[in-house]
């Protein structure tokens, strides 16, 4: 199969769909890999590293789209890229179609087959191609939060680990899923006093079993949150209710109960944010203050560490990419129901129920399509 990887063109996107290692694995299986020039530069992979892996570099995205049987990307195709997709071409990338009618209509009109990273599942009911980005955002949260806690950035001037004779920062993590667990691990590793709140008792049991000596866990109620935030130096918002906007767990009125210069890191901002005063910010201008409390609310946190994010995403996508290239999308989806769960669009038909519901469009079952 001819596998094409264009340079990402969405503003502030420095990741790339294929690493040189992924290219090498594909070439070793007899596939041809075509990379747009400088596609990997934002993640620290130059053209030579792809050439060494056996890939071919081309000058333009047009050449990539015109030549490849399968396009591998990171972000959803932008309008100019969607015009280059063609009937029968396979697209493997993040799509997030439900809030995006323009993209959905363009993909349907193109006749392509589109498999969305974010809806591929695993046997534990997880989302294996979203998890790496949650891991990155979770581990980054205490890092950016501790920077915000510094006096010059508006914070309380508290060191995460304290020093001998001076206590550590108190960090509250609301939501103990993928983001929250990784955030708590790193915050505890920096020496902070960490408490994780969650609403799922099985999740709290798991956290206690595995991390009992490293951080504390507590059942999440409005009362527990109200009490804990009064003494907190940093609160990390990491909740998710699948398919719904994030619940608002700290109100504006509650900010006045917090210490001046305390920090809120709202990782759930991509779902609307879990603090009333959160509004999405960018890496160029990541923090702001409300009522004396600092807020960090960057909606695409993994972009700050594009190289780590690219490699982590590539590790997760590669087995699926190789299956799609090796077997063709239909056989690969017939063999793997979790990959089939990623099928969102095929030959002008929408195949993902939640997108159809969100956009009021007819949906054909993916099983009917692969078994046709
Ligand atoms: N800003 C970014 O760059 C970025 C990057 C990755 C993920 N995210 C977002 O981070 C959020 C968390 O993602 P995740 O992968 O950890 O999800 P997850 O499903 O693994 O974990 C969410 C957890 O929140 C818990 N929860 C739900 N309601 C709660 C409540 N009221 N109180 C306490 N806990 C509650 C759930 O029980 C679950 O354990 C999502 O909104 C995701 O989109 C943002």
How would you describe this structure to a colleague?
The two termini are 22 Å apart. Helix 8 (201-211) links the parallel strand 8 (193-198) and strand 9 (216-219). Helix 6 packs across helix 7 and helix 11 (306-327) crosses helix 12 (329-335). The longest helix is centred in the last third of the chain and has 22 residues, at 306-327. The chain has 15 helices and 15 strands. The model has no long low-confidence stretch (mean pLDDT 96). By secondary structure, it is of the alpha/beta class. The strands form 2 sheets. It has an 8-stranded mixed β-sheet with strand order 3-2-1-4-5-6-14-15, with helices on both faces. It has a 7-stranded mixed β-sheet with strand order 9-8-7-10-11-13-12, sandwiched between helices. The protein folds into 2 domains: 2-119 and 305-370, NAD(P)-binding Rossmann-like Domain (Rossmann fold); 136-299, NAD(P)-binding Rossmann-like Domain (Rossmann fold), CATH 3.40.50. 36% of the residues lie in helices and 16% in strands. Nicotinamide-adenine-dinucleotide binds at residues 133-134, 137, 174-180, 197-200, 203, 220, 238-241, 246-247, 249, 267-271, 299-302. Residues 133-134, 137, 174-180, 197-200, 203, 220, 238-241, 246-247, 249, 267-271, 299-302 line the site of nicotinamide-adenine-dinucleotide.
């Amino acid at each position: 199969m001819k596998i094409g990887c264009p340079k990402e063109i969405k503003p502030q996107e420095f990741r790339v769909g294929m690493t040189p290692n992924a290219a090498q694995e594909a070439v070793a299986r007899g596939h041809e890999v075509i990379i747009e020039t400088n596609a990997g530069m934002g993640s620290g992979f130059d053209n030579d590293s792809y050439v060494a892996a056996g890939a071919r570099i081309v000058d333009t995205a047009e050449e990539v789209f015109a030549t490849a049987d399968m396009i591998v990307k990171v972000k959803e195709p932008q309008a100019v890229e969607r015009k280059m997709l063609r009937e029968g071409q396979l697209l493997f990338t993040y799509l997030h179609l439900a809030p995006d009618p323009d993209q959905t209509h363009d993909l349907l009109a193109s006749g392509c087959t589109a498999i969305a990273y974010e809806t591929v599942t695993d046997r534990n009911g997880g989302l294996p191609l979203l998890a790496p980005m949650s891991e990155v955002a979770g581990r980054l949260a205490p890092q950016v939060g501790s920077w915000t806690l510094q006096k010059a950035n508006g914070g309380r001037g508290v060191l995460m680990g304290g020093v001998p004779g001076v206590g550590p920062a108190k960090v509250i993590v609301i939501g103990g899923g993928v983001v929250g667990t990784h955030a708590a691990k790193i915050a505890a590793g920096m020496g902070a006093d960490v408490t994780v709140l969650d609403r799922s008792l099985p999740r709290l049991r798991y956290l206690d079993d595995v991390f009992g000596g490293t951080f504390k866990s507590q059942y999440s109620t409005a009362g527990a949150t109200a009490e804990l935030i009064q003494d907190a130096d940093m609160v990390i918002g990491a909740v998710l209710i699948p398919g719904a906007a994030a619940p608002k767990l700290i109100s504006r009125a509650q900010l006045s109960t917090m210490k001046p210069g305390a920090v809120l890191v709202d990782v759930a901002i991509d779902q609307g944010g879990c603090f009333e005063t959160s509004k999405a910010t960018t890496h160029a201008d990541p923090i702001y203050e409300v009522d004396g409390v600092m807020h960090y609310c960057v909606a695409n946190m993994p972009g700050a560490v594009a190289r780590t994010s690219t490699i982590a995403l590539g590790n997760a996508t590669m087995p699926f990419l190789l299956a799609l290239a090796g077997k063709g999308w239909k056989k690969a989806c017939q063999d793997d129901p979790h990959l089939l769960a990623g099928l969102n669009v095929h030959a002008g038909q929408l195949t993902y129920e939640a997108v159809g519901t969100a956009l009021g469009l007819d949906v054909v079952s993916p099983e009917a399509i692969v078994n046709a």
